[in-house]
Amino acid sequence: EPEVTQTPSHQVTQMGQEVILRCVPISNHLYFYWYRQILGQKVEFLVSFYNNEISEKSEIFDDQFSVERPDGSNFTLKIRSTKLEDSAMYFCASSEGDVGNTIYFGEGSWLTVV
Amino acid sequence: QKEVEQDPGPLSVPEGAIVSLNCTYSNSAFQYFMWYRQYSRKGPELLMYTYSSGNKEDGRFTAQVDKSSKYISLFIRDSQPSDSATYLCAMRKGAQKLVFGQGTRLTINP
Q: Do A45 and B99 touch (CB under 8 A)?
């Protein structure tokens, strides 16, 4: 069964460092997303991406965050200058279409900022 | 008032019991309703996806949506220890964004 894959599974980084989280969405999917889950809290939407541009973003997704689809298969989330409060599980997700289509999640990348 | 409310539990039931999980929501703009299962430190896995009010059944799982009451439920019949996980309700607002509940931690005791 096709799946969304994410790397790394776990990353520890020092405060202020840049981090890039990588994702390979399901191959025929056109919509890509990043969600975040701080330990013990709910899954929160960060950003959606379609046709090589951001289509929606939350208030969490400020200037320190950026997304990119550098080639035909990868989708990345960059955090420019990490803060302690960025420690969370980051989930990449994808869907074939928008309205009415199922969103499939990856296994997540656990980011620890120290 | 939170957009989506879900009792975080924990909920502990004996094997074979019927489990009822629920969410309420405040925004009548929500059109699509989902239940995801999440094992510890793993990604959400889609269980059920519904659009209209009413019931949808898939094996041991039944999803129920009552738009007039802004209330959704997931029923698990003949619960198994492997069903032990956190269950997340999620709702779709607009074209793309999912709004999740807090998640209910469920344990099925053998």
A: yes
Q: How far apart are CA A78 and CA A19, in angstroms?
A: 6
How far is it, in rounded angstroms, from Cα A56 to Cα A34?
11
Rounded to an integer, what distance in angstroms lies between the CA atom of residue A75 and that of residue B16? 42
Nearest to A31 among B49, B96, B100 (CB): B96
| Whole-number percent of chain B with pLDDT over 70 | 97
Q: Which of A50, A41, A34, A45 is nearest to A90 (CA)?
A: A34
Picking from B42, B45, B100, the nearest residue to A42 by CB comes out as B100
Which residue(s) pair with A35 in the sheet?
A: A45, A91
Q: What is the pLDDT of residue B8?
A: 87
Q: Is some CB atom of chain A closer than 8 A to the CB atom of B95?
A: yes
B33-81 tens-digit pLDDT: 999 999 988 899 999 999 878 899 999 999 999 999 999 999 999 999 9
Q: Which residue of B has its CA nearest to A94?
A: B96
pLDDT band at A92 (very low <50, low <70, confident <90, very high): very high
Q: How many CA atoms lie less than 13 Å away from A31 in the CB half-sphere?
A: 18
Q: Chain B closest CA to A111's CA: distance in Å?
A: 12
